[in-house]
TrEMBL record:
This is Thioredoxin domain-containing protein 16 isoform X3. It comes from Sapajus apella. InterPro entries: Thioredoxin-like_sf, Thioredoxin_domain, TXNDC16, TXNDC16_3rd, TXNDC16_N. Keywords: Membrane, Transmembrane, Transmembrane helix. Residues 28-131 form the TXNDC16 N-terminal domain.
């Protein structure tokens, strides 16, 4: 039960004092024998028990948290006990060792549920699992409206929550209960919005006039109480209303869905108003239940696109048997026995479940062709394993190879990128090239022709034999880039033959672009590993790329205005040649020139509709300054896309003679409904207290241990609690940033 208001606060104190006198409280965890414990169980009363043979370091942390959970669970009428297993007494809960890694929830002497102790990792997890156990029946939640009661001898009105007891439903229920019961408005109903509408509930306007105001208000209050939690009720003052509504209408019904016209009704009975609202809600629920294949109307208000994708694919059967599910018992033996890819995920999180589909797609593509074992572990069930592997955000992928440090995957969370990462990691980098002939085969793509489809460019570092430091830095850079590009190194005595052939001054990089059939040389003014990574990263970007959802982050991070050519299909070679000519002439150095095929990337049509109204014919050349100002400029559609016209247009832009067609608002991408902005709520909550600092530098070390011990990734000294686990962003493309952090750490270490 919950209440509000200061008057009830005094009643709450009195009640607490009575409880202190008559209900003894236990602050510490009681220890009982099995016989004694089962004799204390009472019919209808819930009890949580942990059966233990002997205290050990492995259980000490859990017992500390269980002790902390005694008082909060007592507040809900649930007792907690530690049951010491003794030889003199037999109990099926004191049997095998695996049974001792569970806690048991009883109602009377009936077992309701078992909890693996790994899932009860702290006091909050213990309380949450017990209170929200699916097997606990007859739970009810009431809201008591005591703020409206001035006389303490009167009873408070109460409202029962009719929806299932989930975190989201409780959150929405409380927000609705705290909203005003009745609001008076004198505005156009079409323009009125309340918290009810934001939460997906309809609005009911009781139309009033001055002569019948008091009676109409009483009617509106009565309707508001009857529809509390189902709809918002407002008193609409017709006399002061600027927008006319039909004279005969006394009720206006406004749905939460956008684009649905309002209903102007004539209903002279309160029950008719209630029935109209409830019948409409009932029809929507029946339609949703009868036709599960039709997406419900609430799909458009999912918290994010990832959650929506998971919802749409909820009936898809995944062939999980293509991957091996790991547990605490099997993790160590599996990752040490063979080369493994491990997916760390949590089954309650939308991004994890969406990426699990991509992970299974990779397993399908690699079936029967790879020696790499694809495995997965649910960190919601085995948090200790994930903690030891230094995994603090989900989903996360690591590659384990015999005798080598684990390699973290930090690319895009999609099938193709993960597949590329796995395939390119079949060999070690950088590849040591030992002859001129082998170097030529490497540059032509013949040496690793089965990998060329995953890497459009191969990089060969040229060094004199005595350039020890430069070679070490390049090797370090190649190691960081493994899984993303093929790198090799040549430092034999005859290296000058290659450097002379390709006009390269040592030390240098040779970039073999296989799709273009070109080899270019880049001198290394600085051989520091971080600089080498930056050079190779920039070289991987195309001069005039086709922009897609997957590669946009790579070009977006350049922080330059985007010069985009929108096309409904392949672009005219004449346009491409004109833009490439301007690139060579350095006219476009301050821009990122690219093109977007609306057939391959349909989302581009929505982008154009935001820029133009109406949409002009394609192709369209647009300059978008996203990083400063948000201005959008359009190349004149009546001019041909040729070099002369493009140069003239760019010069006009430079001197300010062109006006933007629109200016993009500097607003954040937020959830569609304010009540769903859980990230802001979490940020506000976490900012109220200090969190322990995590060491800035993290360096993975070789941590293979003997078979009896847990394989542990000690890439960082772990000081953060389990609550600091974070969720990965869906469009994650920060592998270069991760590498950059590691370089800084190496220097400090």
């Amino acid at each position: 039960m919950m209440s509000s208001g200061s008057s009830v606060f005094r009643v709450g104190i009195s009640f607490a004092i009575v409880c202190i006198f008559y209900v003894p409280t236990i602050d510490s965890l009681p220890e009982l024998s099995p016989q004694k414990y089962f004799s204390t169980l009472q019919p209808g009363k819930a009890s949580l028990a942990y059966f233990c043979q002997a205290d050990s370091p492995r259980t000490s942390v859990f017992l500390e948290e269980l002790n902390e959970a005694v008082r909060p669970l007592q507040d809900y009428g649930i007792s907690v006990a530690k049951v010491n297993c003794v030889k003199e007494e037999t109990s099926r809960y004191c049997g095998k060792e695996k049974d001792l890694m569970k806690a048991y929830l009883f109602k009377g002497n009936i077992l309701l549920r078992e909890f693996p102790t790994d899932t009860l990792f702290d006091v909050n997890a213990i309380v949450a699992h017990v209170l929200f156990s699916e097997d606990v029946e007859n739970a009810r939640l009431y809201f008591f409206h005591c703020k409206l009661v001035l006389d303490l001898t009167q009873q408070c009105r109460s409202t029962l929550m009719e929806q299932p007891l989930t975190t989201l439903n409780i959150h929405l229920f409380i927000k609705i209960m705290k909203a005003p019961l009745l609001t008076e408005v004198a505005d156009d109903p079409q323009q009125v919005s309340t918290v009810h509408l934001q939460l997906g509930l309809p609005l009911v306007f009781i139309v009033s006039q001055q002569a019948t105001y008091e009676a109409d208000r009483r009617t509106a209050e009565w309707v508001a109480w009857r529809l509390l939690g189902k709809a918002g009720v407002l008193l609409l003052l017709r006399d002061s209303l600027e927008v006319n509504i039909p004279q005969h209408a006394n009720v206006v019904f406004k749905r939460a869905e956008k684009g649905v016209p309002m209903e102007f009704l004539v209903l002279h009975d309160v029950d008719l108003i209630i029935s109209h609202v409830e019948n409409n809600i009932h029809v929507e629920e029946i339609q949703e239940d009868e036709d599960d294949d039709v997406e419900g109307p609430d799909i458009d208000t999912q918290d994010d696109e990832v959650a929506e994708t998971v919802y749409r694919d909820r009936k898809r059967k995944l062939p999980l048997e293509l991957t091996v599910e790991l547990t605490e018992e099997t993790f160590n033996a599996t990752v040490m026995a063979s080369d493994n890819i491990v997916l760390f995920y949590v089954d309650w999180q939308a991004v994890s479940m969406a990426f699990l589909q991509s992970y299974i797609d990779v397993a399908i593509k690699l079936k029967g062709t790879s020696t790499m074992l694809l495995t997965r572990i649910n960190c919601a069930d085995w948090p200790d394993v994930c903690t030891k592997q230094n995994v603090t955000e989900f989903p996360f992928v690591k590659m384990y190879k015999k005798g080598k440090n684990p390699v973290s995957y930090t690319g895009m969370l999609g099938t193709e990128d993960l597949l590329k990462f796995i395939q390119l990691n079949r060999i070690s980098y950088p590849v040591n090239i030992t002859s001129i002939q082998e170097a030529e085969e490497y540059l032509s793509g013949e040496l690793y022709k089965d990998l060329i489809s995953y890497s459009s460019m191969s990089v060969l570092g040229l060094f004199s034999p005595n350039m020890t430091t430069a070679k070490e830095d390049f090797s370090e850079a190649g190691n960081y880039l493994k899984g993303y590009v093929i790198t090799g190194i040549y430092s034999e005595e005859d290296v000058s033959l290659l450097s002379n052939k390709y006009a390269a001054t040592l030390p240098a990089l040779l970039l073999a672009r296989h799709t273009e059939g070109k080899i270019e040389s880049i001198p290394l003014a600085s051989t520091h590993a971080q600089d080498v990574v930056q050079i190779i990263t920039d070289a991987l970007l195309e001069t005039f790329p086709e922009i897609t959802v997957e590669n946009l982050p790579s070009y977006f991070r350049l922080q330059k205005p985007l010069l985009i050519l929108f096309s409904d299909g392949s672009i005219n070679p004449q346009y491409k040649n004109a833009i490439l000519t301007l690139v060579k002439q350095k006219y476009l150095d301050s821009f990122t020139p690219c093109w977007l095929n609306l057939k391959n990337t349909p989302v581009g049509r929505g982008i154009l509709q935001a820029y133009f109204d109406p949409l002009p014919p394609l192709p369209l050349l647009v300059l978008v300054n996203l990083h400063s100002g948000g201005q959008v400029f359009a190349f004149p559609s009546d001019q041909a896309i040729i070099e002369e016209n493009l140069v003239l247009w760019l010069k006009k832009l430079e001197v300010g003679l062109e006006n933007p067609i629109t200016i993009l608002p500097a607003q954040e991408w937020k959830p569609p409904l304010p009540a769903y902005d859980f990230l802001s709520m979490m940020d506000a909550a976490t900012s109220q207290h200090d969190t322990e600092k995590v060491p800035k530098c993290m360096k993975e070390t070789d941590v293979q241990e003997n078979d009896k011990e847990q394989y542990e990734d000690k890439s960082a000294v772990r000081k953060e609690p389990i609550e600091t686990l974070r969720i990965k962003h869906w469009n994650r493309s920060n592998w270069f940033k991760e590498a950059e952090k590691s370089f800084k750490c190496d220097k400090e270490l």
